[in-house]
Design goal:
The chain has helices at 2-8, 15-22, 26-37, 41-59, 64-70, 76-87, 91-98, 114-126. By secondary structure, it is mainly α. It is elongated, with a radius of gyration of 25 Å. 15% of the residues are buried. Residues 105-116 have a biased composition (Polar residues).
Length: 131
């Protein structure tokens, strides 16, 4: 059931459809979710969708409205509201805070490695002066 939600989160998901796919009643599915995960089916789906949106906000420059749609939120206002409730910040604030963090540690391709600079200066120091 969780793998179905994890792969289909961007599409509309209804408890009745999920229960039918699992071969159980809506009530049984809801009870199992609450019992085993500590959250409702809707809360789990929202958490998966927000998690996907967070990755996209941090890793892409896509507009927030596109990210909302690709994360399963057809309504941007609803996405913004649910995101803020979950993360205590707006999607734009999240992007500003977390985008590019992974790449900050690695130098850009146009930067010269500091180790190369130190070797070159060290080799210049070792050369005997020509008289």
């Amino acid at each position: 059931m969780l793998s179905l939600i994890d792969t289909q989160f961007a599409h509309p998901l209804k408890v009745g459809t999920l229960a039918k796919a699992a071969g159980m009643s809506e009530r049984t599915l809801t009870r199992h979710f609450t019992q085993h995960l500590g959250e409702s089916v809707g809360e789990y789906i929202a958490r998966v969708r927000i998690g996907h949106a967070c990755r996209m906000l941090a890793d892409t420059a896509m507009p927030i409205s596109v990210i909302a749609g690709r994360s399963g939120f057809p309504n941007l206002a609803n996405f913004n509201r649910q995101f803020k409730v979950t993360k205590q910040m707006t999607p734009a604030d999240y992007r500003r805070q977390f985008s590019g963090k992974k790449n900050d540690a690695s130098p850009s391709l146009t930067e010269r490695s500091p180790s190369l600079d130190s070797k070159r200066t060290a080799s210049k120091r070792r050369r005997p002066a020509h008289k």
